[in-house]
Amino acid sequence: MDGDRPVRHDWVYLGAGWAEQLRSPPGPDVLAQVTAWREQGRPFAVARQDMPDQEDELRLGLTLPDRRHLSLHVALPAVERRLPPPTVEEVRDSAPAAWGPALDDVIALGTALDLTVGVFGSLAWQHRSGVPFVRPLSDVDLLFAPARWSDVERLLFGLEAVSRRHSVVRLDGEVLLPDGGAVSWRELALEPERIWVTGPRGASPRTLRELRALFPAEP
């Protein structure tokens, strides 16, 4: 595998010798499902690492169309290719037509803030695999990585406005933090005293002041 180490929400394709790189052997049913998925040329999503994991290990997830969630624990050499999360522009044609206006507004918001808007969850699985995942009540899970706290504030204002305009689909997702953590944008918009942060190796509550301090000071 070339390039940076895969991180949560990235996508990876497993190479021919992937089974020799298993760190935690899965059960027979999981192994059969994972093998079949890989042989059909489909990718896996990078999941949050466990605290004891080594730097040369990855936790991967496979969500099946019937909503079963399977886990895989491998060494890095199992990975043949890495992809970033797909963007809203990339997945738009994979989404239901009724979602188009809402996604167009999200794209416009990202352009206005100079942000790349990624997608994870069911719509990303549908786009990456070519298998139907999206249901009528599915959310759109979005990913944002603002560089400044002022951009976070503008982003939350914009997302709330888009959500009010489009009730046909619920916009969900995460704001990625400079230290590798992530928070729900909907929770962040409520400005709670403490908010749950999902990190690369676990999750913990943080204060809003602590989150602001992660971003560079602005004049």
From TrEMBL:
<keyword id="KW-0808">Transferase</keyword>
<keyword id="KW-0548">Nucleotidyltransferase</keyword>
<dbReference type="InterPro" id="IPR017557">
    <property type="entry name" value="Holo-ACP_synthase"/>
</dbReference>
<dbReference type="GO" id="GO:0016779">
    <property type="term" value="F:nucleotidyltransferase activity"/>
</dbReference>
<dbReference type="Pfam" id="PF20866">
    <property type="entry name" value="MdcG_N"/>
</dbReference>
<dbReference type="InterPro" id="IPR048903">
    <property type="entry name" value="MdcG_N"/>
</dbReference>
<protein>
    <submittedName>
        <fullName>Malonate decarboxylase holo-[acyl-carrier-protein] synthase</fullName>
    </submittedName>
</protein>
<dbReference type="InterPro" id="IPR049180">
    <property type="entry name" value="MdcG_C"/>
</dbReference>
<feature type="domain" description="Phosphoribosyl-dephospho-CoA transferase MdcG C-terminal">
    <location>
        <begin position="90"/>
        <end position="202"/>
    </location>
</feature>
<feature type="domain" description="Phosphoribosyl-dephospho-CoA transferase MdcG N-terminal">
    <location>
        <begin position="8"/>
        <end position="85"/>
    </location>
</feature>
<dbReference type="Pfam" id="PF10620">
    <property type="entry name" value="MdcG"/>
</dbReference>
